[in-house]
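User: Continuing from earlier, I have the next pair ready.

Assistant: Great, send them over.

User: Here they are, in order.

Assistant: Folding the first of the pair now:
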Amino acid sequence: MTISKELLDELLSGVERPEDLLGDKGLMKELKVRLMERMLGAELTEHLGYEPHGEPASQQANRRNGATRKVLKGNDGAVPIDIPRDREGSFEPELIQKGQTRIDGMDDKIIGLYAAGLSTRDIRAHLEEVYGLKVSADLVSRVTDAVLEEVSDWQNRALEPVDPIVFLDALRVKIRDAESRQVKNKAVYVALGVTAEGEREVLGLWIAANEGAKFWLSIMNNLRNRGVEDILIAVVDGLKGFPDAINAAFPDTTVQTCIVHLVRHSLNFCGWKDRKAVAKDLRRVYQAVDDEEAAKALDDFEAEWGTKYPSIAPSWRRAWQEVIPFFAFPPAVRKIIYTTNAIESLNRVIRKTTKTRGSFPTDDAATKLIYLAIRKFENTGRCVREWVAARNQFAILYPERFNR
């Protein structure tokens, strides 16, 4: 729609200062109000079937019946709107629906502030300071609670039948326990899949009191019930019983311990002055051509460092059955499963969002914020780098499973 110069000149004829245009009583706000009231009037005309100041059909009892003043909250602060009425009360406008109290995407602003980690109190203060809006804590809670419906749909959505790689991890978040009313460190479980097209997809999030293999088994069953038929490689940390939990639901899945987790765990045993040297010698283990060469490199490492740091080599041997699958894969696949960096980058996004909150009052409050962080993470770019080479290797290594 093109607005003529003559109309613009007429509208701006009384505008001399910026506040005359943009202020609380300025032209822009008044124009918005007038336009909305004009549209509401047109809706009522459509509903009743006759124009303002016109006459309804002879047998028609329902007529115009004045207007009701309603104050809406929007980007411009409080906006008073006169909503036209009919005698029978059957008019339900589409532009401003019954019960509506906000316009201009105010709900999206509240959710955006919540996703940034602001508390309910912080959101209320921000809206009052920036927009001059006084909103109740109950309103903020109701708006953010709408996210839970989206979470439920997302958490129960159908999944692809095959995930070439799934990264599994848990992080800790402080949440007030419903029964004891004490703040506890609860485990937030996250499953991040890589699809056959090389796209990262968060398969779900779950909250429990503790991280354990038993709960991981319930998560594996959840993925199976939602359509996952096969996982080629599951990359995990060193949690005891984790491989059994995965293979109970997906017997053919190769479970791979995160190499970086093992290295970091090893470095916890040595002094700062030796960390670089120890890390360099451990690199010979996980960069070996095959498992035999890796075992020999671990023996050499123990001969060099075993006396000074006797705990490192045994920790690798205890996890050896979940380390050696790594050596059966070509470089293109090794590069992706070498570390849980993919899921650790997700965890960084979650921690950045949650760090401003000392604790959460409920599991639902934590779920809402973590889901919004996940949504932000997935919008930043979902493709795994250099996936084409890895995909070709998967097609050769798992011809029937990968191409089902």
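And the other member of the pair:
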Amino acid sequence: DGAASNDNLDMLEELRVLGLLMKGSTMDASGISNASLLAMATTNGGRALGFDDVGTLSEGAAADLVFWDLEDESFCPRNNVVSHLLWSANSRAVDSVMVAGSWVMEHRQLLGIDIDKVRFEVARRARRLASG
């Protein structure tokens, strides 16, 4: 999915909607497993895009990692982390992100990005698009 379909670009929300659609279309609460949803977002998602080196924690795989704050209330009680990730958590629970082995966000602080400049540029471009 993308910004043409919705504006929040939250991967977890997309997985949750997919899971709910699968459960609703089959009229079965077990219509799709947590393992299947997680695989769709990781290994299978990469394969669908033609990438064999993403979506796994293995030697030689791309080092794109998301570190979740397990102290976030969406993981409480911490009895099933995968279930909480898929059904309760959202992007606010992300603590740190690594892309291609380099930190792009650490402890909720974006690195190498001037967020005020980004916000200014987004607003400028939005005004230009709105004016035709």
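Worth noting for the second one:
The mean pLDDT is 90. The chain has two domains: 1-61, 63-79+94-131.
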